[in-house]
Specification:
globular; binds zinc ion; alpha/beta; single chain; binds BIS(adenosine)-5'-pentaphosphate; cytoplasm; 9 helices; nucleotide biosynthesis
């Protein structure tokens, strides 16, 4: 199945997408991760995206849609895709409808992860990831079993994202409310929207998402 995880910065899209990838053999398609890779590689898309991401704004629809199109054309995407952080504007949602139709793919569910703004700021400011494998952690909510060592790969180098500072987070939240929140109504109208209380704990949300994926398979 193909599904979208919709939600503001810090809602847990990446955390849940990774868990679904492990459990169901689906592919995580995070436009944020793909853009950060493009920035690191210094591609033309990456050069255009860099400043916008540092400021907490949205990268242009054209760049993001091209990146998604390329990723969907890779063979492993046939197993089913979890869209994490895409679409983020109505124009992106319309483009995705077109891409899926062209490729003969379905959209099986859109999950809206619903949280409160103050909780998101706390989640983002406590977040870090393993530099070796990308597993995500949190100072309070998700600590490795052995302090300082990754549960997945044992790596000890951890990193924090450049856009996870208070000023940029405020801009990211503004962009979410202005440009992305309208997608909730867009997908509700299409009758594919499922609302999940993302203030719940990570495991409980995962259980709900597993049920949604199982039903969509
Ligand atoms: P992106 O990388 O997509 O960032 P984001 O949407 O801001 O989302 P985050 O990664 O911050 O949060 P998340 O929901 O994945 O939360 P996580 O699971 O890590 O985008 C970055 C930038 O790229 C954008 O600002 C934009 O510039 C650009 N961009 C990307 N896509 C674009 C697009 N389509 N169009 C245009 N521009 C685009 O969880 C956060 C923390 O909380 C973690 O530490 C986690 O352990 C913890 N946590 C998770 N769930 C829970 C829980 N239930 N309870 C307690 N703690 C929890
Ligand atoms: Zn690791």
């Amino acid at each position: 199945p193909n599904l979208i995880l919709l939600g503001p910065p810090g809602a847990g899209k990446g955390t849940q997408a990774r868990m679904l990838t492990d459990g169901h053999g689906l592919v995580q398609l995070s436009t944020g991760d793909l853009l950060r890779e493009a920035v690191a590689r210094g591609t033309s898309a990456g050069k255009a995206a860099d400043e916008v991401m540092k400021a907490g704004g949205l990268v242009s629809d054209d760049i993001v849609i091209a990146i998604v199109n390329d990723r969907l054309d890779q063979p492993d995407a046939a197993a089913g895709v979890i869209f994490d952080g895409f679409p983020r504007t109505v124009a992106q949602a319309e483009a995705l409808d077109g891409l899926l139709a062209d490729k003969g793919l379905s959209l099986d569910a859109v999950v809206s992860l619903e949280v409160q703004d103050d909780a998101m700021i706390e989640r983002i400011s406590g977040r870090y990831t393993c530099a070796g494998c990308g597993e995500g952690y949190h100072d309070t909510y998700k600590t490795p079993a052995k302090a300082g060592a990754c549960d997945q790969c044992g790596g000890t180098e951890m990193k924090r994202r450049a856009d996870d500072n208070a000023e940029t987070v405020a801009e990211r939240l503004k962009a979410y409310h202005a440009q992305t929140a309208p997608l909730i109504a867009y997908y509700d109208f299409k009758r594919v929207l499922r609302r999940v209380d993302a203030m719940d704990d990570i495991g409980a949300i995962g259980t709900q998402l597993n049920a949604i994926v199982a039903k969509a398979s």
